[in-house]
Model the fold of this input.
Amino acid sequence: MSRETADVVIVGAGIIGLSIAHQISRRDRRRVVVLEKAPNVAEGSTGASCAILRQRYTHVEAITVARDGLRAHRDWARYTGLDEPRARFHHTGVLWMMNETPQAVEAGRSRMAGLGIGVEVLDAAGVGERFPALSACNEPFDLSGETEHTCVDHDTFLFETESGFFDPVSAAQDLLEAVRGVGVDVRFKAAVTGVRTSGGRVDGVDLTDGTAIDAPVVVNAAGPWAPRLAAMAGFSYSPWTIHPIRAQVIYREWPRDVVPGPIPVVADSSGGIYFRPEAGGQQILVGSILEEDEQEVVSDPDVFNGNIDAAFRDVKIHALHHRIPSLPYRGQITGVAGMYTMNVEDVHPVVGPTSLEGFIVANGFSGHGFKESPSIGSMVARFITGAESDEWDTSAPMEFFSIDRAPIVLDQKAVLA
Ligand SMILES: Cc1cc2nc3c(=O)[nH]c(=O)nc-3n(C[C@H](O)[C@H](O)[C@H](O)COP(=O)(O)OP(=O)(O)OC[C@H]3O[C@@H](n4cnc5c(N)ncnc54)[C@H](O)[C@@H]3O)c2cc1C
Done:
C-alpha cells in the first residue's frame, strides 16, 4: 500500500469535478488530485448531456449562475487557456414556446435584460421569419394522437439571443488538457473505495489499488454515484433526497430538404419537450421537460437501462411533429438514456461545505449541471482557496445552493425549474 498527500482530492472527472479543478488551478498551485474510476472523462452524466446553455430560470441567482457559465462557454479558448480547444459553442439561440401571457413573457424579458442577458419577444410572424420550420401553435393537444387537434398560433414567445448548446465530451477533454497542463494530477481507473474521517473531519481517501491519499479537503463530484461516496464518509444529505434518475433522449434524422433550418434550442410546453440540432445538423435531439419523465430512480448507477422506451419515443416524436409540421413520418430514430442526479426537494444542487469538516459537495444538478459548471467551479474554488473572484467567476452566492438552505420555492420541480 502506498501513502500520499494532497491539498485537495476531487472525486469524479465529470464536468463538475474538472471545472472545480480548473477553477482552483487558475488561482494557485496547491496539490490537487482528481480521481476517476472510469478509464476516461465524461463517462457519467456528462457524456449523456445535451449541454443546452439556456439562461432562463425562476430565480435571479440561478439565472446569474447560467449567465456566468455561458460567458465561459462562449469564450472557451480564453477560459481554458487552450489555443485549439476541441469543444465548440453552437450559437442557435433558445426559443421558449411556453403558452404564457404577453405580460408573463414581458416580465421574463425585462428581468433577464436587467441582468444583461440578450432577450427578445417574438410574435408568430417573427418565429416564422427566423425559424420557418416551426409552427407557432401553443394549444395543448392530446399527446396520444387519438384526438384531433386544430392549431392556433400563439402570439408571444421569449427568445434568448445569445444562448445555444455545447459539445459536452469535448469540453471535458479540454478541461482535462487544461488542468494537466498546469500540473493537476488526474488519475483514471482510480476508484475511491473509502473516505477516511476522524473527529468530525475528513482525513483522506482510499483507492482500489490500496493507495491511501491523505488530504484535508475531499470534494464529492461523483455525479450519480455521489450518495455512495457520501455514505463512505458516513455523511447523510438529510433532509435532502439526492438520487440518480434515468433521463431519455431521442435522435431524429433531420431531412434538410423538407425541414428548412435554422432550428434553435426550443422549450415546448404544449408537447412537453425540448429539442435542438444534433450531429452537425443531421439530426434533431429531443428530450422531455415533464416532471413525470424524471421519476425513474436508478438504484445502482453501475447497472441501468441505457436504451429508450418505445412509449417515450412515440409520444415525444408525436410532439415534435406538432412543432415541425413538415417533418415526414418516415425517418431514422435512435436514442439513449443517461442519468441525472436529482435533488428531489427542489431540483437544484447542493454545493459547498458540509457538517463534516473538509467534505465538500457539488451534487444533485438534475438537468442543469453542464451549463452551471464554470460557475460551480468558481464557487467551490473560491471557497477552498479564499482567492477573490475574477473575470470567470460568478457573482451568484454559493449560499443559494448551500446544503443548509430551505428548499427553493418553485412552480414545478422539473428540468426547467
Ligand atoms: C440526458 C441528459 C441531458 C442533460 N442535458 C443537460 C443540458 O441540456 N444542460 C445542462 O446544463 N445539463 C444537462 N444535463 C445535466 C448535466 O449533464 C449534469 O448535471 C452534469 O454532467 C453532471 O456532471 P458531474 O460531473 O456532476 O457528474 P458526472 O459526469 O456523472 O461525473 C461524475 C464522475 O464521478 C466518477 N465517480 C463516481 N464515483 C467515483 C468513485 N468512487 N471514485 C472515482 N470516481 C468516481 C464517475 O465515474 C463519473 O465520471 C443532462 C444530463 C443528462 C443525463
In short: Residues 3-86+167-240+345-401 form a domain with the FAD/NAD(P)-binding domain fold (CATH 3.50.50.60). The chain has a mean pLDDT of 95. Residues 11-17, 35-38, 43-46, 48-52, 191-192, 221-225, 229, 247, 249, 338-340, 365, 367-371 surround flavin-adenine dinucleotide (CB under 6 Å). Residues 369-385 form the longest helix (17 residues).
